[in-house]
Structures are given as C-alpha cells and as structure tokens.
C-alpha cells in the first residue's frame, strides 16, 4: 500500500513544523495545579502564525484564498500540532469552514470563508450532544417557519473554544424534514446562553443553551449527509491529534531512557524497557495506517459502499481508526509514565500535560469496545447487502 504524500501535502507538513518549532508544551500551568481553566483564550499569537503560513485555509478552495487540499493534509498538520500540545481550534474551525464551503449558500461562503482562512473569524463545532453520551444531532431541534427562518431549541455540552469563537456550527434534528441540519449560530445572539465548563486538559469549554434561537435560511446548511461527513472529519482529525501526541510522548520516552542510567547502563538497553517501547511503536504504526485510510475516505468522498463487493461505508474505516487511536494513545502515555519513573508522576514535568491531553482525546473518541460493536454491526449489514 502506497502511503506517499503529495508534494502539496509534504509542503503543508514542513510549514507546520516551522510554525510549531517554537511552541513549548510546558508553557501552560498544569490543570491539576490551576483552579478553573488554564487560560481564558487560545494561543492567539500561534493562531496568527498559522494564518500567515496559510495553514488555516488548507482545505478551502483558491477562490476563498485556500489551497484546495484534502483531509489528509489537515491530519498531517494536526499531527504536528499535537506533538507540542498546540492550544488552537485548528480542527474545529477548519472542519466548520469546509462544511460551509460544501453546503452553504454563495452569500454565506462569500462572507465567511476568506475571513476564516485568514484567522479573522473563528469557528467551532458542537459535537458532544446534551450529556456527552447521546448523539449530538438529537440534542437540538430545528423548526422551519413559514417565513423561511429556522428556530433552534436545545443544549450542547462541552463545546470547545466556544467562548472565543465567533460562530458555532450546531447539528440539529429537523423532525419535519426527517434529517439533521447544520446551523451556524453566532456566539452572541438572542437566546444563546453559555455556561463555563473545564476539560480534562484544563481548557475552557462551554455548555451551549439555545432557547428559541432564530436564524435566517442562509445560516442553516440543509443537505443530506452533511452532518455525517462532518462528524467523520472531526473523528479522523481527533485520531490525528492522538497520533501526534503519541509520537511526541514516545520521542520523550526514547530520549529519557537513553540518558537515564541504572547499574552503569542506559535503561533503554534493558530488555524489559526495550520491549515495552517497541510495543508502543507498533501501536503508533497501527494508529497511523488506520488514520490515513480513514482520512483518504473522508477526503475522497468515498463514503458509502453498496452490495457485498463494495467497500465498507466510511463509518467502518473511521471506527477502525478510533479503536486504535483510543486504545493506542492511552497505552503510549501509560507506558511513558511507567518508564519515566518518578518523573512520570511529577506535575511540573511536561509528560503530565501530555497525559491529561491523552485522556481528553480518549474520552472524545469514546471507548474502543463501542466502536468494535459498531464495526461488527457494519460488517454484518455489509455481508447481507
């Protein structure tokens, strides 16, 4: 299988490495030592550098100032961002902008996309539902009025970067239409109420309550399959973050065990240490292979298979990537903490923040067992088809 990246994708990686080179993952206080959120805002200086490097517009078409690349390019950049725990809404803002590009009106695209690509307008996505356990599309209802406006009611929990975003893309169930629509809700709008929440990483989240929020037709993306594709992109991007974080942690572990001596030898030369590190390397390679398969399916639009001879639906590849990412990132960080000895439990050492981020990513992806069950259902349905 050929995993060679295109010249454009490789250029995006090099640009990302240059931007993230100066980012220190230990530059933010530990969430365990800080009451409330670690900061009120994301890293605006880094956000500006990403915009200057054209990394916020990778997936936008040239007419909106973008490069017209695909989900693989975004995942490559996300992987680099996670190695340094970059505190920016890169995944959420890019995913929301691409959804608008694919399904929004010409008026909406003209007024929003170029500004999003330049980092002037920040977007996020409400994808966690009312409790974090129920489907996001079931948490909000959308009613289409006779005058063409939409009315939204419901609650979405744990919305990332919501206090600093200009717009929130909210999936909402439209009972009359029998499908899910995507509503672009301004953060400051009549009927919109935020309540602060704090993530496992110490980042500021928000509960988004919508009470009879009225939006014009231009602010609602009403297209079959739009939410399913966006959800797949968000999940795949989260897998890319897990991969990058795991690679960063394994690099830290390799450096530490190569310097730490016991009985006059580096502990990296001990078989018990080497075997554990090798197992985690295998985890990362499996995470990488399944990630690129899912990202390719998302970026190529090859979403659904029909009949027994066709490929599995996109959801199958995403489920496999989530299984490996959820389990793998946890194993990598736990092994790293074990091999670091006392440093692994030191909240002043950067590994502590990587552990917190890994746990947040694992929770965001959901339990591997649930994805295995979903994959089994897909395989059974596919075989019968």
Mean pLDDT value:
92
How many alpha or pi helices?
10
Assembly of the depicted chains: single chain
**Overall domain count:** 3
CATH class division of the largest domain: Mainly Alpha
What Rg, in angstroms, do the CA atoms define? Answer: 21 Å
Question: CATH superfamily assignment of the largest domain?
Answer: Butyryl-CoA Dehydrogenase, subunit A, domain 3
By secondary-structure content and strand pairing, the structural class works out as alpha+beta
Give the helices and strands as they follow along the chain.
Answer: HHHHHEEEEEEEEHEEHHHH
Helix proportion? 40-55%
- Tell me the number of strands: 10
Q: What does this entry look like structurally?
A:
This protein is 48% helix and 16% strand. With 385 residues, the chain is of the alpha+beta class. The chain has three domains: 7-120, Orthogonal Bundle (Butyryl-Coa Dehydrogenase, subunit A, domain 1); 125-221, Beta Barrel (Butyryl-CoA Dehydrogenase, subunit A, domain 2), CATH 2.40.110; 226-384, Butyryl-CoA Dehydrogenase, subunit A, domain 3 (Up-down Bundle), CATH 1.20.140.10. The strands form three sheets. A four-stranded mixed sheet has the order 1-4-5-8, covered by helices on one side. It has a four-stranded antiparallel sheet with strand order 2-3-7-6, with no helix packed on it. It has a two-stranded antiparallel ribbon with strand order 9-10. Helix 4 runs antiparallel to helix 6, helix 6 packs antiparallel against helix 7 and helix 6 (226-259) packs antiparallel against helix 9. Mean pLDDT is 92; it is low at 302-309.
């Amino acid at each position: 299988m050929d995993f060679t990246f295109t010249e454009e994708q490789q250029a995006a990686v090099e640009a990302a490495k240059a931007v993230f080179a100066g980012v220190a993952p230990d530059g933010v206080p530990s969430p365990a030592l800080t009451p409330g959120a670690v900061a009120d805002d994301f890293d605006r200086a880094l956000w500006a550098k990403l915009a200057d490097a054209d990394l916020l517009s990778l997936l936008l078409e040239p007419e909106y100032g973008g490069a017209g690349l695909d989900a693989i390019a975004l995942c490559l950049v996300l992987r680099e961002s996670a190695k340094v725990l970059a505190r920016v809404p890169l995944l959420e803002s890019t995913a929301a902008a691409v959804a608008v590009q694919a399904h929004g009106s010409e008026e909406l695209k003209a007024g929003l996309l170029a500004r999003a690509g330049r980092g002037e307008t920040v977007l996020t996505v409400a994808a966690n539902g009312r409790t974090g356990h129920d489907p996001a599309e079931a948490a909000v209802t959308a009613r289409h009025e006779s005058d063409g406006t939409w009315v939204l009611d419901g609650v979405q929990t744990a919305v990332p970067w919501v206090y600093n975003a200009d717009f929130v893309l909210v999936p909402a169930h439209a009972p009359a239409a029998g499908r899910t629509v995507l509503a672009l809700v301004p953060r400051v709008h009549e009927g919109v109420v935020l309540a602060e929440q704090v993530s496992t990483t110490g980042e500021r989240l928000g509960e988004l309550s919508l009470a009879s929020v009225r939006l014009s037709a231009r602010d609602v993306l009403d297209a079959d399959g739009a939410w399913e594709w966006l959800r797949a992109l968000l999940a795949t991007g989260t897998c890319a973050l897990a991969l990058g974080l795991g690679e960063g942690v394994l690099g830290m572990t390799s450096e530490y065990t190569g310097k730490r001596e016991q009985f006059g030898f580096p502990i990296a030369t001990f078989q018990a240490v080497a075997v554990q590190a090798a197992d985690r390397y295998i985890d990362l390679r499996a995470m990488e292979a399944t990630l690129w398969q899912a990202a390719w399916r998302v970026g190529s639009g090859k979403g659904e298979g029909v009949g027994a001879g066709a490929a599995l639906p996109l959801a199958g590849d995403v489920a496999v990537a989530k299984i490996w990412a959820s389990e793998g990132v946890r194993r990598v960080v736990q092994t790293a903490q074990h091999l670091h000895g006392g440093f692994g439990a030191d909240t002043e050492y950067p590994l502590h923040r990587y552990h917190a981020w890994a746990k947040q990513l694992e929770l965001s992806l959901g339990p591997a067992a649930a994805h295995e069950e979903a994959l089994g259902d897909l395989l059974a349905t596919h075989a019968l088809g």
